[in-house]
Amino acid sequence: MNHCFLPVSIRIDGKAIVLIGGGRVALHKAVLLSRFTQTAKVVAPEFDPGFASVPFERIGKHYEPADLDGAWLVYICTGDRALNAEVKAECERRGVLASVCDDPALCDFISPAIHREGNVTLAVSSDAKDVRRSIRIRDRIKLLVEEGRLSLQ
To answer: What's the CA gap between 153 and 109, in Å, rounded?
Structure first.
């Protein structure tokens, strides 16, 4: 199946964002998200040590459907495909948008490769088909900006 994602910027202030999972992939998403908001909830039985530097509320426990109460946006990053699918199904029942990390077929949205400078955000996406390529292009743009060869003014 060929998935197509619409690149949009979504207003998240005041919205309940939940991350399910506490490993390396969840940490990556949390760090990215923390550049845009200081409020989110992370639910996992254990957390990568890097979460100590992320401003989000950490709830140390196994996932249960009540963890999605009031959620507006959910990142699902458990590393357990069956659990990820279970959480995604619960999100669908609740009408909550969810991104299942490393499984684009289950995603309602994906996170592009981002460079943020002030109030300008550059996002490069490949519709989750070639993430490494998106990152390479983002890094080239970032380098051009840092070298002064591309102005964001």
So the answer is: 29
Distance in angstroms (rounded) separating the CA atoms of residues 113 and 86: 27
Q: What is the rounded distance in angstroms from the CA atom of residue 57 to the CA atom of residue 51?
A: 10
Instruction: Measure the CA–CA gap between 150 and 145, rounded to whole angstroms.
Output: 5
Digit-coded pLDDT (tens) for 27-47: 999 999 998 999 999 999 999
* Residue 81 near residue 103 (C-beta atoms within 8 A): yes
Q: Which residues contact 4 (CB under 8 A, 6 or more apart)?
A: 127
Q: How far apart are CA 89 and CA 80, in angstroms?
A: 14
* 75 three-class SS: strand
Name the residue among 45, 29, 43, 36 with its Cα closest to residue 15: 36
pLDDT in tens, 75-124: 999 999 999 999 999 999 999 999 999 888 899 998 888 888 888 888 88
Report the distance separating Cα 62 and Cα 20, nearest Å.
9
3-state secondary structure of 40: coil
